[in-house]
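Give me the fold.
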Amino acid sequence: MKKNIAIIMGGYSSEVEISLQSGNVVYQNLDKEKYNLYQLHILKDKWVYIDENKTEHPINVSDFTTTVNGYKIKFDCVFNAIHGHPGEDGVILAYFELLGLKHTSAPFYQMAVTFNKRDTLSFLKPYGINIANSHYINKGDEIDMDSILKKVGLPCFVKPNRGGSSFGVTKVKKLEELMPAIEKAFEEDKEILIEEFLDGIEISVGVIEYNEKVKVLPITEIVSENEFFDYDAKYLGKSQEITPARLSKIQNQNVVKASEKIYKYLNLSGLSRADFIIVGDTPHFIEMNMVPGITAESILPKQAKAAGISLKELFGNAIEAALKNTN
């Protein structure tokens, strides 16, 4: 019997439109002969199933079901395509775990930790993972410019602590740019991270569970036309994304080793994408994306293709791994 798969998309953050694109890519590529697929929009003002006629059917939040023509539809598994809150930060996944509903992401605690840049860096540092120097500010804190710059220097990056798609991120080159950058980041989150600039090779690495093993996908080198890998570079073609990356053998080995360690140290599962800056031969971990973009312009699908894995196989594998999960 076909399994009923809910593909959740949308969310409550600035990434809502990107998430809708990602969810549609999943819907278009999952095997419809094997699964009954349902596109669910999880939005601030409504949770609805959108059928092929674009008719909306409300989701019953007490048991995460929907009713169509008097027939109640229960879901066997949820494919999580929500970037940001409440999908990537684990909030909706805690709800699914209370309901006993399987999903394609890591458990909600791991999702919450990895969505918080500060917590992820703090968790990994004792394991010897190389990271950039950074300074944290909560909204309302006294801001000591001299203390910040003494620690991170110029240029530096100011970014929301919890966010994605580079919303609210600024590369600061001069002292007078720092406060406007902080104010911009606070528009996205009440916690911000200020990080030193690392002059090196920017890369992104997909790590997934594939055929019940941890698999590091071919590495992507990012060459942005802009100051950094911002929204335009990610989604509007303002960057070169070279897969496989132009790395030396030792650089490649170090990145693969670090990526595997991070995935295992954090006890992750499902799809992930880690970002690094390589300085010399040493990769420095920047952040983890646990609901990575899967639009046509996104990195992870290109990496999967380079590894000989089609989107049908990539997404189907995620579903099958979730269905087998006994946790």
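The longest strand covers residues 201-210.
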